[in-house]
Amino acid sequence: MPTTASSAAHVFTDVTASDGSLRRFLHGLAGVDTVGLEARAASLGTRSIKTTAKAYAIDLAISMVDLTTLEGADTPGKVRALGAKAVHPDPTDRTAPTTAAVCVYPDMVAAAKEAVTGSGVLVASVATAFPAGRAALDVKLADVRDAVAAGADEIDMVIDRGAFLAGRYLKVYDEIVAVKEASGAARLKVIFETGELSTYDNIRRASWLGMLAGADFIKTSTGKVAVNATPANTLLMLEAVRDFRAQTGVQVGVKPAGGIRTTKDAVKFLVLVNETAGADWLDSHWFRFGASSLLNDLLMQRQKLATGRYSGPDYVTVD
Predict the structure, then answer these.
(1) Is 255 a catalytic residue?
(2) Which of left, alpha, beta for 35 (phi over 0: left; psi -120 to 50: alpha)?
(3) In this predicted model, what pLDDT tens digit does every residue of 160-219 receive, in sequence order?
(4) Nearest one of 150, 98, 101 to 123, comparing CA atoms
């Protein structure tokens, strides 16, 4: 099946022709049943899995982690250490899968790239004046181009939430299109900051807006606000990518980020993926966890399954 936005752009040419047509389309999407959405997310979160399935789920979740450091105090040394952990999450067990990617600021891309060379681990970079997104478009595009020039395989951009909430949908659409072009061969993840969008209807509209503009992934959050990924908002985004593929043939990934810290949490999200979008999304190419502390818990639970006991506190590194 196609995996680019070209066929989607063809199908929805009239929709994105003007601000008015885009607004009519987005506001014409079915309203979200809040009670129903949250009840389904809670119900799926109660599913239990057997030990053999849990072992598979843990390894799958590890392979989906974007191991992330996005702090002002980041140094090349810290990033190289994080890259080494992404390549060998458990130095005592080389059967542990690598993570999907390391996610850093643009000025740390070169250090991350050096640390993961030859491993298959990707380097993702936040850009477009992350996390607020408050900058002129030329500044945002320069941010993206710097990251790509340094070797980023993926770009995680933030939308202009102010423009979106003001109903300036075409401005947000055009900005995503421009960032997608500036990203070149790098895959583009579009961050909505769902905690600032206020309503589930807005999250559904943002999901469709991002996909129409060519997002390769839609992502919940920066991890820098109070409300980040939740089962309900991720379920809603999974429904959106499922429905988008049904209409266009284009598959788009989903990345919940922020607040997912335990293996139990990760398994709940994997159940959401399987039961909502389907098995086609149960792959790191189409689903990611934006997390750092999650990996440590996954490794602890992985060893518990293998040995029957929990490791001491020095078993995993403190990132």
Answers:
(1) yes
(2) alpha
(3) 999 999 999 999 999 999 999 999 999 999 999 999 998 999 999 999 999 999 999 999
(4) 101
Reading the block at residue 167, the tokens are 């109903």
**Is residue 253 classed as helix, strand or coil in its secondary structure?**
strand
The one catalytic residue among 255, 265, 268, 297:
255
Is 264 a residue of the active site?
no
Phi, psi of 142, deg, nearest 5? -65, -40
Q: Which residue has the tokens 């740390």?
A: 108
Is 23 in contact with 169 (CB distance < 8 Å)? yes
> Which helix (H) or strand (E) element contains residue 293?
helix 293-307
The active-site residue out of 66, 143, 156, 216 is 156
What confidence tens digit (pLDDT) does each residue in 68-125 have? 999 999 999 999 999 999 999 999 899 999 999 999 999 999 999 999 999 999 999 9
Half-sphere CA count of 299, side-chain side, radius 13 A: 28
Gap between the Cα atoms of 1 and 62, Å rounded = 26
Q: Is 180 known to be catalytic?
A: no
The pTM for the full model equals 0.93
DSSP at 103: E
Structure tokens at 92: 């005592």
Q: Which two tokens stand for residue 209?
A: 């807006």
The token pair that represents 269 in the structure block: 């999200």
